[in-house]
Amino acid sequence: MSAQQLFDVLLSIKTDEKSGKLYIYVKESNTRHIGTIIVGNGEISSITFLRKTGGLALEEILSLNVEGVVFLQQSGVAANEKSPDAPAIHTVLWNLKNKLTSSGIGVGGLKTADIRKEVEEILKKIYGPGIIKEIDRIANTYLIEQNPEGFLEQCKLKAQLMLSKDQVEKLFKPLYEKLKT
Known about the structure:
This protein is an alpha+beta fold and 181 residues long.
């Protein structure tokens, strides 16, 4: 129930471009913990939970039993105060949707490894071998096993810095097709 509530609140935040703090109450064994998601203009600025931040905090929250959520709307939280390890709100919504449907997309490890190799080949042609560090950073933030679409979107954005949108769409279309199969 509360994971659905978290999804609904985050979707509302994104849709209405709200700013404020979202408190997530999580139960683990006999203890309760509070996670915090700070949002600015409908985007996540930071996530903290049990001394973890960003994607790691999100993984931890989603692995436990969410008991409740409370959103306190505040003005003055700017999206430019975004923590570098804060995942995009669409990534969080995607992960929550998968948790709620429990079947997920079903992308296996082999398929995501193939997709990553193909992304590396595409981006190496554009930027050279030094791009691997940036791909690693994107993969750490967007966790390709859990959110391959978010990973591909970020890599597409990287490619669009050097190529036209049409060229990038043409290069990445086969990768999106692999996700669907």
